[in-house]
Each structure stands twice: as structure tokens, then as C-alpha cells.
Write a structure and sequence with these properties.
- The structure is a single chain.
- A hairpin with a 4-residue loop joins strand 3 and strand 4.
- The chain has two domains: about 40 residues, no CATH class; about 190 residues, Up-down Bundle (Four Helix Bundle (Hemerythrin (Met), subunit A)).
- It is globular, with a radius of gyration of 29 Å.
- It is built from nine helices and four strands; from the N terminus they run ββααααααααββα.
- It is mainly alpha-helical.
- It is about 70% helix and about 5% strand.
């Protein structure tokens, strides 16, 4: 019989053009049909990012700028290691360029609609790597107290972990103004400590020699205060979100 098949029990079941019927003419449960559909979508690549997508996302201007910040780290270390006035000045300039490109690539990604998965991973990674390299070199050169480096780096790891825990629970902790001040003071302080030596500065409001090491020390200690302040704000925000969630769940269960 065309388009049908006789089952062992003798019943005739049409097996052409019927939904929910296996090729053998046996009706499939809904769960099994859904499993088959998911398997077919996976074979066609539906619902999943293909491996080539990440490679295509990499080749855009914001991500290339971010990757460039990682590539300049060895050159930055070599310049900072030499510790003479010219090399120190170049190391400070290179770090300043890296800090500026951090702002530029984020602005370009948002402006051009190029916010990508690989960019979200590379951007904070590049920031932490070059700051870590700078702090290690400054401690080695005696321009940066080791306890300050440990405190600042520990704060970064703790806050990053806290934000990841919050994100996994569907909570977003926005960066406050104190965190932005901490970042600005820390980056400018590191640049000044890298330059280190006394140089003539000719500005509209000031002309004369400036001890960049002294300027860097002041800015660094200020960044420590803002760092602790912003970390406390993050913890307070996290605890407040947990408290609100607990109140909501308690009232829902009641």
C-alpha cells in the first residue's frame, strides 16, 4: 500500500506527510519530537554561534586597538626596565597612549555598533594586564610601595568577582562616580611615577621644573582612598540588591 505501512499489530498507519510519526509509522511523544527538532537545528547551525563568528568579530577597529594594548606590553616593560630619564619618559608616554586608546576603543565600539563578545573579554583583560605590568615594574624600581600595589590589585580582583557573581544572579552593579575618580587618579599617578624624573614643564599656568615622582606619589595615595571608597560602595550595592531580592521572594512565598 502506497504511503502506508502495516504494523506488527496489523494496523495500517500512514507514514507520509504526518507530523509526530516516525519513519516506522509509530507516533512519537512530544518530548522526543522536540529533541529531534533541536538536534536538526544544531546540525544546521541554528541557535549557535559558529566558530568563525568570533574571528570575524576580532577584525574590527575597536578590538584591534584593544589587542594592540596587549601587544605593546613587552615594549613597555623594556622601556620601564631601563629606568633612565629618556626611557622612563617613553614608558610613561606609552602607558598614557594605552589609557587613551582604552577610552577610544570603547567609544568607537558603542558608536559603530561593534560591541562584541570577544571585545567584552579583551577590553578588561588588556586594562588589567598593562596596569599589572606597570605596578610590578614600579615596585621593582622602588617607585611604588609593594603594599599599595597589593591593595589596589586585590581590590580590582575582588570587585570584578563581585560583579560577576551579581551578573550570574541577574543583578547589575553600575560603576559610581567614585570608581571613575579612582581610575583617573590611578592612571595619571602611574604615568607620573613612570616618568619619575624632574622635567621642565611649560604650561599656561605654570613654568618650571616638576618632580613627577612627587606628583605620582600624591595621586597614587589619593587613588587608594577612592579605591577603598568605591569598593565599599560596590559591596553596599550588592548587599542592598540581595536584601531587596530576599524581601521580594519572602513576600511571594507568603
Amino acid at each position: 500500500m502506497t504511503g502506508a505501512e502495516r504494523t506488527p499489530e496489523g494496523a495500517i498507519v500512514a507514514n507520509v506527510g504526518l507530523r509526530g510519526v516516525s519513519p516506522r509509522g509509530v507516533a512519537q511523544p512530544p518530548a522526543e519530537r522536540e529533541t529531534r527538532r533541536k538536534r536538526q537545528r544544531r546540525r544546521r547551525g541554528g541557535g549557535e554561534r559558529r566558530p568563525g563568528v568570533l574571528l570575524k568579530e576580532f577584525w574590527n577597529v575597536p578590538n584591534l586597538l584593544t589587542f594592540g594594548r596587549i601587544l605593546i606590553i613587552p615594549l613597555f616593560i623594556v622601556l620601564a626596565y631601563q629606568a633612565n630619564p629618556m626611557a622612563s619618559l617613553l614608558a610613561g608616554a606609552l602607558f598614557a597612549v594605552a589609557a587613551i586608546t582604552d577610552v577610544v576603543d570603547g567609544w568607537l565600539a558603542r558608536r559603530m555598533g561593534l560591541v562584541t563578545v570577544i571585545g567584552k573579554f579583551l577590553d578588561p583583560l588588556a586594562d588589567k594586564l598593562i596596569v599589572l605590568a606597570a605596578m610590578v615594574m614600579l615596585v621593582r624600581l622602588g617607585r611604588f610601595p609593594a603594599w599599595v600595589a597589593i591593595l589596589l590589585l586585590s581590590r580590582e580582583f575582588v570587585v570584578t568577582g563581585l560583579r560577576q557573581i551579581a551578573a550570574s544572579e541577574g543583578m547589575v552593579i553600575a560603576a559610581g562616580q567614585e570608581g571613575k575618580w579612582k581610575t583617573a587618579l590611578q592612571l595619571v599617578g602611574i604615568v607620573a611615577l613612570l616618568v619619575h624624573y624632574r622635567h621642565e614643564v611649560d604650561l599656561w599656568v605654570w613654568h618650571g621644573p616638576v618632580s613627577f615622582n612627587a606628583v605620582g606619589q600624591v595621586l597614587t595615595y589619593l587613588s587608594v582612598l577612592f579605591s577603598l571608597w568605591s569598593a565599599g560602595v560596590y559591596f553596599r550595592g550588592f548587599l542592598q540588591m540581595l536584601a531587596r531580592r530576599g524581601d521580594g521572594s519572602g513576600s511571594a512565598e507568603a
